[in-house]
Input
Amino acid sequence: MDDDNGVNEDLNANLRCQSTGDPQLDKAVHQWLTWDKNHRTRAQVESLVAAGRMEDLRSRLLSRMSFGTAGLRAPMGAGFNRINDLTIIQSTQGLFSYLSRYFPDFRSRGVVVGFDTRGQEESGCSSQRLAKLTAAVMLSRDVPVHLFSTFVPTPYVPYAVKKLGAVAGVMITASHNPKEDNGYKVYWCNGAQIASPHDKDILQSIEEQLEPWSASCWEEELVESCSLRTDPLTHINSCYMDELTSLCFHRDLNSSCPLKFVHSSFHGVGHVFVQQAFQMFGFAPPIPVPEQKDPDPNFSSVHCPNPEEGESVLELSLLLAERENACIVLATDPDADRLAVAEKSDRYGWKVFTGNELAALLGWWMFFNWKESHPDPADTQSVYMMATTVSSKILQAFARVEGFHFEETLPGFKWIGNRMHELAKTGNMVIFAFEESIGFLCGSLVPEKDGVSSAVVVAEMAAYLHNKNLSLNQQLHNIYQTYGYHVSKTSYVICNDAPTIHKIFSHIRNFDGKGLYPKTCGGVRIVHIRDVTTGYDSSQPDLRCVRREKRSASFTCSAGVSSCFLRRFFL
Output
């Protein structure tokens, strides 16, 4: 501690000699070097101070992370707006304080903590270390912690929260983000990601608990010695795999299926769990992509660890499938909560399905099998399917024809998960839900998108269709012929300049004069505009949105045949 105090005194003296003219920044630098015990991230700030890089320091130290659709997510490295040891400890202290006020039985129920395979050597950060620090903060306050002993798919954390009766769960992951990023996902006692008002209240609680409470918060070794820490891995994995069989409808066909499947886990957590899932369904194991089977925080074989990017990131999977004469490729993202699928066609080569196309297939499949065991049409009154507002309306078309219910939510699976919980309390059941960014939930095993269960469900659907001399793509067109064609194309433009983003959206909102939105899009008449940022919805009698969000707007074009959804992200 004497050495630390010496460093702080030297820093303060240096800042007095080289004043930035910004007392707020000077205070933030002092706080960082006083509180941070990770020598690598301390050195990063010290280096920036010595080099006089004040704008970089302001960027890192004068703002904080906020909860988005995927929790707290940011690059790893030094700074209050980045993922590192100190910000994880601060976040967990705030979470502890909030949960303590909300749950009288917090200390008997505890929390679940999981992690993926990410890491950054230059910051001394890894998902495993950050998970141990999360646990250490809770253990230092005598809270039981169910900390997984190894990496797990993201859906295992909310599944464990519900199965173990914990008050909350934390998953350290940045899913499919670039290798520089990491994140902190929080799940409520119902297994769904936190939504308003919990997210805002937890952020406020974090702001009130910024200084680390004690040295114990930094002792990751506490998870090895404290009796309040348990490892739920074996129990949760066994329960999950057993319950997964509730989605298996044609085991005999699976066991005799001649199709071969290739699976890539994108250098993440998925390999072992997808292999087990196939075994539970009676399949031979999928063929793993050897270069991508094992964890690698650098994602060495892909330029982007996001299977949604399509053929450009599936190259190794497709080449292996060609060599092995496999006609289906399954790719889970690094934390195994999302799924990409490609199918080989003799006539057209490889077809990589979009999230909306896969949803059409999975929605059809789940209702088809549900109807087989529920022949009474009256039973559909308690059946729901769900999708986020940015997604295809194909499930809505299913619902109109088949008589079940369809609901739309704001973007982000947290809204689906929380709505599932509300519906279950009234005796209703969600049999399928999705978001267009290849996130799917088959059944109600866990209130979160799940790449592991989705992968094996797709495999069974493909096996069933193959037995009927149909491919996935052929069945997709059969669906369109029955329910109407739903075609979509998703793209994005990266802009890191907030003022420019603001100008773009301001121009759209004042396109034909002040407060007047565009009347056409690509020559097609716009019949409906919903701007959930401002709360405007032209389809409502009072012109007010039923749902509100900070950063999106949508345009539905003539006859409802197409829609355009614009959304801005700040990461």
In short: The first helix runs from residue 2 to 17. Residues 1-8, 11-17 have pLDDT under 50 and may be disordered. The radius of gyration is 25 Å.
